[in-house]
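Protocol step 4 of 6: structure prediction from sequence.
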Amino acid sequence: MEASVDIEALNQQIYIDSEFIDKIIKETGKVIVGQEYMIERLLLGLLAKGHVLLEGLPGLAKTLSIKTLSSAINADFQRIQFTPDLLPADIIGTMIYNPGKNEFNVRKGPIFTNFVLADEINRAPAKVQSALLEAMQEKQVTIGKETYSLDEPFLVLATQNPIEQEGTYPLPEAQVDRFMLKVNIGYPTKEEERHIVRRNLSGETTQTISPVVDPSTIIKARESVKQIYMDEKIENYILDIVFATRDPKLAGINDLEGLVSYGGSPRASINLAKASKAYAFLQRRGYVIPEDVRSVCEDIMRHRIGLTYEAEAENVSQEDIIKRVINAVEVP
């Protein structure tokens, strides 16, 4: 009985703490038509302290959405256009020689900000991607002998073109795993696209986004997300899903045998739990339910599952694997 009273109080507190979400969605809606799913996923990463990788064809408002969100939050924003000739120093900065003082001074790169938009991230080779690894994982950057902490909130929001396009490089697995979410962006509906065309013709796309929250609000919200209640049954549900991707046969999913080369790592379990809590926060609820886990599972897991040659030959995708696992694992 006492636990239910605590949950009720927590529920009310989360409802109050999450009021700013509606303001952000309303403000971004001034510029972004449709793509509510993408905005929701960006907020999910922001609240769960996880980086977000958006994959989709050019022209689907990926860059615009990230820029608009940063404006609504009044956070520092830097855009880095990834190209084949980009160097690691172009991202993190470098040591510059000062002849007057006969010494080297640090010139910090664009990574020193709140929101980093890594635009078309897979158009740069692995040497450049390595510059992001320390910043994404440890929230710090080493230039020369000095290590500098990055300001909070710090988030890498990357856009990626489908691998089949010309001039793209597959991202290193270690880097892909550091993205909490990988979100596939699709085309808008016909009605949404009609609205987009009319907005562009009338010049409405030049609307200014007003800051509705500041970074301190996001930092406070992250603490609220940590307080969201997750029952042990939900924890077991998350573990069952992740373990089923590693050994489908052991989980009783015999039709997946021979299709999965590797499943989700412990980082998948951690991120699935964090994202489920953040999703509950977006729903303005103080506790996690199985539907929260199911809602975020695909975006958390799709880049953490390896397919065998048999799976590729049978045109089985990561999404197909995840759907079968979710349907097979018992819901608490």
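Step 5 (inspection) to follow. The chain has two domains: 20-202+214-219, 229-328.
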